[in-house]
Recover the amino acids of this structure.
């Protein structure tokens, strides 16, 4: 154990989590971003070092460099291998090599940002489940454990151990969800399932011994702001034509959910990539030491062009080494740092910046929270304006922002056949 690990005391929340998990083989750290989950995981690793031969730590690729830096900072008496989810799913050679690597007697597997393993149809999820079979210990780290519905909890608990909830998917749905039916105006019956509050306390009692959840209290002012920007006449025309054409197609398809998803995706892209709006956002953030999160590469480039040279920009086209250089530059260059959600929403510690802007709203509220937490971390002492949302004048942005905190709102909108004409 390194001297830095022993010299720096744990925070109160970290101490409480350590006390709960010190004797368990599995655990879920649902601690809000910025509370030091990585350090606590390393503390747990050091605590049970005599019972471990190795650790496999899997995380989003955008986070792996940060995790390796944390390991170097705090130290580990056990070899830790850090791997990206994307690499695990996309490289067959790496998968086979890792599968051989985990054939060792005493292994801990860490699923960092475990929202990445909630889809049983994805290759990364099935491969993580397979790796888990070879581990004596398992740990999940996440700041937003419930981003969709109660299935999120089921997937994460099953990864830790199927004995925790001890039920298959069919029985789980029957116990914790209620069946809903509605007949639309065309006579088609729609069936869906919504979480039931009747047995939620029972579910909570099953998972409680294996879950520690905490929220970050900074003691600084946290402000929320919303700004509406104009659009060009060309964009307004394109938006209205796209809306009307898709809504007609939606009616012709008798309320197809796929068609409405396509409509919303097209409308959000049109609204976000408007040059007039992006120029207005650039004017609003110019000269600030801030983060600007973008949904689209074109949106990011339009804002960057409007800012001229007075900005930094990071997206998936940059190598990890180039990203690190740009993040280091952001410590001293007091200009906007433009990020895409894919590379900026997870794992980064950017608490040297105290303002964040969202150039356009996203359907994924959990990702917005993740992005905001890049500056909302232990050690932040400045006043924070961390949720300045920049909206277009179009209805789709207002709809997303209004409903994004409600779990499963988009699916419910479609299932109930709510007419979106008046909202878009």
């Amino acid at each position: 154990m390194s001297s830095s690990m022993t010299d720096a005391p744990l925070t109160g929340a970290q101490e409480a989590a350590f006390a709960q998990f010190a004797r368990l083989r599995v655990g879920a750290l649902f601690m809000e971003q910025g509370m030091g989950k990585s350090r606590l995981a390393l503390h747990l690793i050091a605590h049970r070092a005599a019972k471990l031969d190795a650790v496999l730590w899997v995380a989003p690729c955008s986070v792996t460099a940060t995790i390796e830096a944390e390991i170097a900072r705090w130290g580990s008496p056990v070899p830790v291998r850090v791997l990206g989810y994307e690499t695990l799913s996309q490289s067959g050679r790496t998968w086979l090599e890792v599968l051989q690597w985990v054939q060792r007697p005493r292994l801990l597997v860490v699923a960092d940002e475990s929202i990445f393993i909630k889809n049983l149809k994805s290759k990364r999820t099935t491969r993580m489940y397979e790796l888990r079979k070879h581990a004596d210990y398992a740990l999940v780290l996440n700041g937003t454990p419930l981003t969709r519905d109660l299935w999120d909890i089921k997937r994460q608990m099953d990864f830790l151990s199927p004995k925790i909830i001890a039920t298959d998917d069919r029985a789980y749905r029957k116990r914790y969800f209620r069946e809903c039916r509605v007949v639309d105006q065309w006579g088609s019956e729609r069936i869906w399932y919504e979480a039931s509050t009747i047995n939620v306390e029972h579910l909570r009692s099953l998972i409680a011994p294996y879950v520690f959840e905490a929220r970050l209290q900074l003691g600084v002012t946290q402000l929320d702001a919303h700004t509406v920007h104009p659009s060009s006449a060309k964009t307004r025309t394109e938006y209205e034509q796209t809306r009307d054409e898709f809504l007609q197609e939606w009616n012709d398809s008798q309320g197809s959910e796929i068609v409405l998803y396509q409509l919303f995706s097209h409308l959000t892209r049109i609204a976000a990539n408007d040059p007039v709006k992006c120029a207005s956002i650039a004017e609003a953030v110019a000269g600030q030491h801030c983060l600007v999160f973008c949904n689209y590469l074109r949106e990011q480039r339009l804002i960057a062009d409007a800012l001229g040279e007075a900005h930094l920009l990071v997206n998936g086209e940059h190598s990890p080494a180039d990203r690190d250089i740009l993040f280091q530059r952001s410590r001293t260059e007091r200009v906007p740092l433009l990020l895409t959600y894919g590379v900026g929403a997870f794992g980064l510690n950017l608490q040297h910046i105290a303002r964040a802007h969202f150039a356009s709203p996203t359907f994924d509220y959990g990702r917005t929270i993740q992005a905001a937490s890049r500056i909302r971390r232990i050690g932040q002492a400045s006043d924070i304006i961390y949720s300045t949302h920049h909206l277009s004048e179009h209805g789709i942005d207002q709809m997303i922002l209004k409903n994004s905190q409600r779990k499963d709102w988009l699916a419910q909108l479609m299932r109930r056949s709510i007419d979106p004409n008046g909202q878009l």
Summary: The chain has two domains: 3-214, 222-422. The CA atoms of residues 111 and 140 lie 5 Å apart. The domain at 222-422 is CATH 3.40.50.300 (Rossmann fold). The chain is about 45% helix and 20% strand.
